[in-house]
Write a structure and sequence with these properties.
Number of strands of chain A: 12
Largest sheet of chain A: 7 strands, mixed
Helix content of chain A: 25-40%
Strand content of chain A: 25-35%
Radius of gyration of chain A: 20 Å
CATH architecture of the largest domain in chain A: Alpha-Beta Complex
Number of domains of chain A: 3
CATH topology of the largest domain in chain A: Phosphoribosyl-aminoimidazole Synthetase, Chain A, domain 2
Largest interface: A-B, 83 and 83 residues
Order of helices and strands of chain A: HHEEHEHEEEHHHEHEHEHEEE
Oligomer: homodimer
Shape of chain A: globular
Strand order of the largest sheet of chain A: 7-9-6-10-8-11-12
Chain lengths: ~300, ~300
C-alpha cells in the first residue's frame, strides 16, 4: 500500500485487524532485551533467572464494550478479568494492576463507586494488587487496565508453538457471550492455565476474545500450520448455534493445543477436576482452517470473527 | 458524606482531586507485598534484592489533553513522555511500555501513523521498549500509556520525605506550558533525576503536572510539613507571570527537596552541568504554604492548581 493510499483510506475500511497489523508492522523494538514483542496475549520481558515478567493492557469503552445500563460492578469485573485472562493465556499468574479511568463530568459517583467495587472484588479474588491509577475527564466512560504477571520460564506458552498432529482443546462452551451476559461475569481461566502448564505443557495457547475462528486463526498464523475442527465436537453455550460458537467472541475460555502424547495422557486420566473439550487437530497446511461436518465432509472456514471496527 | 449525598452529587461538583481521593480511599491492597500503594507518581513494587519495579499509567483524551489540530507526532511524544516523567520523579529509569489506543472509525491512518511515530521516537530516545498494546474503537482518540521502570532501592524517592529545613528546588522555568506549546515538546527529566539521586539524595520529589502550588501541596500533605516559597526565586517561562508559574501545570519539571547540607553541597559545586532553581524552604506547619513577596511579606497561598474537572 502506498503512502498516498494510506492518507486516503479511513480505518473503518480496514477493520481492527488491519489497523493493529499496521501498528505492529511499524514497531521497532529499541533493544533486544525483550523476549517477545507486541502481538501475543501479553508481552514477555526479562524478570529473574527463573521467571519472566508479563505485561498486558486492555481498554474498555462505553458504547463499544459496555453500556451504562449494564451493572457498573459487572463492568468493573470485566475490565480487570479481561487482563487476567490475557495473563492466564501465557501460562502465568497476575500480580499488579494500574487503572486509568476516563469519566464524564456528568457521571454519578454511585456508578464510579460500583465500577470500582467490581474491579476490587475481582482483583482480590485473583490475588491482584491494584497499585496505581490515573483519572481524567472524558466524553464517555473509559477503563484501561494495565496488568503485570509472572510466569516460570519453563511454563510460558506462546501462540506460535502448535505443531502438526497436536490436538486442539477449549476450556468451556462458546457463543452468545454478549446476549447471555457471560461477557460480564466470566471467570478468567487462571487455575485452568496453572493446571495445564504444570501437567500437560500446552504447545500453544490464547484466550477466546475475538471468536474461536479468529483466535484459532492467530495460533495458526503464528505457528505456520493449519487445522481441522469437528462440527460435532464444538461445545456451544446454552442457546448458542454453531455459528455463534465460531464467531461471537468474548468467551474468555482458553484455546490451546497439546502434543498427541500429552492429549492421550489427559484423556486417559480418570479423575478429571478440569474438563477440557477436544475440538480438532493441527494439520500441516499453513493458515488453512477446515471444518469436518457431522457427515464427515471437509469445508473451508472463513476467517471472519468479531471485528471491532 | 452519606450514600444519599453520593448518589445525588455529580463528579463535576467535586473536581478531580475529590474523585481521586474517593477512589483512593476505597482501595484495599490485597496483600502487603507491595511497597507503596496508589497516589505517588508511580507505584513501587518488589522486583529483585537491589531494585524495585515501578508502574505508572497515563491517559490522554482528545478534547481534554490535546486536539486533532495539534501535531499527531507531538501528541504521541507527550503521551509517553508524561509516563517517563512519572518514573523520573521516583528516581528511576523507564523500561517497557504497553499502549492502548482508542480510535474513531473516521480517524485517518495518517494521524495514527504520525501519533505512533511520535511515541516510537520518544520511546527510542529514552531507551523504552514498546512491547504490547490494545486498539479499540472509540468516539474520540484516547491514548493510554502504561510504563514499567526500575529504581535502585537506595535511590527511590517518594513524596513523603520532606523535612523541616529542607530546601525546595525545581529543574526549570514554569508557567504557560499549554500556550507556549511546551506541553507537547517537553523533555522528561530522567537524566536530572539520575544526577539527583546519585549525587544529592533528594528527600522528596514529584513532577509538576498539576501546577507548582498543587504539586508542592502533594509533597506537603504526604510529608506532613509546610513551606515558604519566595516570589523572587520562582523561575517563570518566557512570557509567563507569577500566577502562571504557580497554577498552570503540565510543565513536567521535577520539584524536589534537599536536606540543607545537600543543598549547600549543590550550591557550593562550581561545575554545574545541571541547573536547579531554589525556590524556598520546608517549614514545620503541616500543609501550610506561604509566599514571601519581593517586599518580604508572608502571604498564604490557596491550593488551587490546574483542576481537570
Amino acid at each position: 500500500m502506498s503512502d498516498k493510499d494510506i492518507a486516503r483510506t479511513e480505518i473503518g475500511d480496514l477493520g481492527e485487524f488491519g489497523l493493529i497489523d499496521r501498528i505492529k508492522s511499524g514497531i521497532t523494538l529499541v533493544n533486544k532485551s525483550s523476549v517477545c514483542g507486541i502481538g501475543d496475549d501479553a508481552a514477555v520481558v526479562p524478570f529473574s533467572s527463573e521467571k519472566y515478567l508479563l505485561l498486558t493492557t486492555d481498554m474498555l469503552v462505553e458504547g463499544v464494550h459496555f453500556t451504562k445500563k449494564m451493572s457498573a460492578k459487572a463492568i468493573g469485573h470485566k475490565a480487570i478479568a479481561a487482563s487476567i485472562s490475557d495473563v492466564a493465556a501465557m501460562g502465568g499468574i497476575a500480580k499488579y494492576a494500574v487503572i486509568s479511568l476516563g469519566v464524564p463530568a456528568s457521571c454519578s459517583k454511585q456508578f464510579i463507586s460500583a465500577l470500582y467495587q467490581g474491579i476490587k472484588k475481582t482483583a482480590k479474588d485473583f490475588h491482584v494488587n491494584v497499585v496505581g491509577g490515573d483519572t481524567v475527564r472524558c466524553h464517555k466512560v473509559i477503563i484501561n487496565v494495565a496488568l503485570t504477571g509472572e510466569v516460570k520460564k519453563n511454563e510460558v506458552v506462546y501462540r506460535n508453538g502448535a505443531r502438526r498432529g497436536d490436538q486442539i482443546f477449549v476450556t468451556g462452551p462458546l457463543g452468545r457471550s454478549l446476549s447471555s451476559g457471560w461477557h460480564l461475569r466470566f471467570v478468567p481461566r487462571i487455575t485452568y492455565a496453572k493446571h495445564l502448564v504444570t501437567k500437560y505443557h500446552p504447545t500453544s495457547m490464547i484466550d477466546v476474545s475475538d471468536g474461536l475462528v479468529a483466535d484459532l486463526g492467530h495460533i495458526l498464523n503464528e505457528s505456520r500450520v493449519g487445522a481441522i475442527i469437528e462440527e460435532s465436537l464444538i461445545p456451544c453455550r446454552s442457546g448458542a448455534r454453531l455459528k455463534n460458537a465460531l464467531y461471537d467472541g468474548e468467551d474468555f475460555e482458553l484455546l490451546f493445543t497439546l502434543s498427541s502424547s500429552q492429549a492421550r495422557k489427559y484423556q486417559d486420566q480418570r479423575n478429571k477436576q478440569f474438563k477440557y473439550y477436544r475440538i480438532g487437530e493441527i494439520v500441516g497446511h499453513r493458515g488453512n482452517l477446515q471444518m469436518k461436518t457431522a457427515k464427515g465432509v471437509l469445508k473451508k472456514i472463513n476467517a471472519k470473527g468479531y471485528i471491532h471496527f
